[in-house]
Amino acid sequence: MVQTALTVLLGALRALLDLALPAALVLAALALALGGLALIDRDRARRALHWLGTRAPQLGGWALAALLLATSLLVLNVSRRAVDARIAAQQSARYANAADPDGGQTVQIAPSAALLESRTYTRSLLLPNDVATRIRVTNSLDSLLPYLGNPGDTVQDLRENFTRTPAGLRYTREVVMQSERPLEFDRSVVRADLRFVEPAGGRGTYYTAAFQASYRFRNPLGTPATLRFAFPLPGGSGTLSGFTLTVNGQALSASDLLNGSVWEGQVPAGGSVDVQVAYAHQGSRAWSYQLSRREAIRDLDVTVTADRTAKFQRYSLFPTSQTRPALGGPATLRWQLKNAVTAQDVAVVFTQGSVRETLTKVHLTQGLAVVLAALLIPLWAVTRRTPLAPLTLGGALLGLALGFTLGGVLTAYLPLLLAEVLGSLLGAGLAWVILGGPRQARTPLLPLLASAALPLAFLTGGHAGLILTVLAATLLLLLLPRARWLAPASP
After folding, report:
1. pLDDT at residue 66 tops 80
2. What mean pLDDT is predicted for residues 454-463?
3. Backbone φ and ψ of 90, nearest 5°
4. Is the separation of the CB atoms in 177 and 121 below 8 Å?
5. Helix (H, G, I), strand (E, B) or coil at 148
6. What is the 3-state secondary structure (H, E, C) of 104-131?
7. Where, by residue number, does the polypeptide cross the bilayer (predicted)?
8. d(CA 2, CA 10)
């Protein structure tokens, strides 16, 4: 970051040097104009020189204030480019000095339950004697295989025989195959607790999720039967920790999880099966609970708790209830469906802009904030009839810019919001001390705080327009009552 800052600074200095020749030409033109005025009207030239001599200290002070303002903008430009280059290199680097989130948009597919049944299929083929003789069928099946087909992968038992009849040779095949009949869940309760983390160094925001679910289904037959429960592993979840699956109080050990975690067992007539699933993982941007197919839902209860404002994917299920604490804290979203038929999913998406784009907006606005402070502080001093030295104003602007710069540097060590808030507060405090601090009764603290808070509006996640409007209206209400004396007197 330091090398990038030096490179940008050298480029800015080269640009300033390129302006030296035009500035020298302008000064030379002014000197020639003054010399020409002296030749034409010596008294007027003498008065002009006297006026410049008496006003030189004040004009020089404001020129230095303008130079300090330009220096402040230059410092902010260097800081912005250096931070942007650091984040770009960090995002494209092959190696990192901190762990990256190991999950993305997580999709948890709803589990399925099925009744396993055995069914017997019989196929018979009669070959007339002349046909059997022509294709040379005796007691071998090799010649008939192209006509019989593959019995399938779910075959449990296969029986074949030949029977000679007066009509010809009869081939009979009996196949016992396993079939699955989907079962409805009597009750499904799903809980997902999402807690967002702002990592240091400008890395992408992610959440830590704790998933818990319980399911109940039963054997619909009047005889014992084999039931199967399949729980698909979530997609986009990275590493799962603390994964447990308990069936009727008995924990299952994870083995082959290619098709998820599967349980299969004998259930007595009318017996029920209770399943509990729990795991934790990391994710980002979105979380969804996907129904596998259009089916009847007897009782589905999904609750998502998140400490960040959530939006809902279009055409997905909208929450039946939402709870948002008035004083802040996690919001609770709940979906309760009973005796419903749907194929819609529960899908929540969280506002998360690009870290690089957000920082670019913040740092570009910091230059505007310094210019705004350069306008508001003199206006504050004029409306309150408080003396303001030009160098004091320039030093305050430079102090505000240095605080903003420190905020950009701190993004490499602290979470984004904390780093920028600390930088803005430090800049406002430094400028306040330069302007007089506690020794000055009418120090422009409110304009400083407003200017320092201006870039932070872009860290609020979509509410920047509202915050900027309220901030502008507040400043207008504070400045206008003091500026009534500027209005022309009524006749």
Report:
1. yes
2. 78
3. -65, -40
4. yes
5. helix
6. CCEEEECCEEEEEEEEEEEEEEEECHHH
7. 20-40, 61-79, 364-381, 388-406, 412-435, 456-480
8. 12
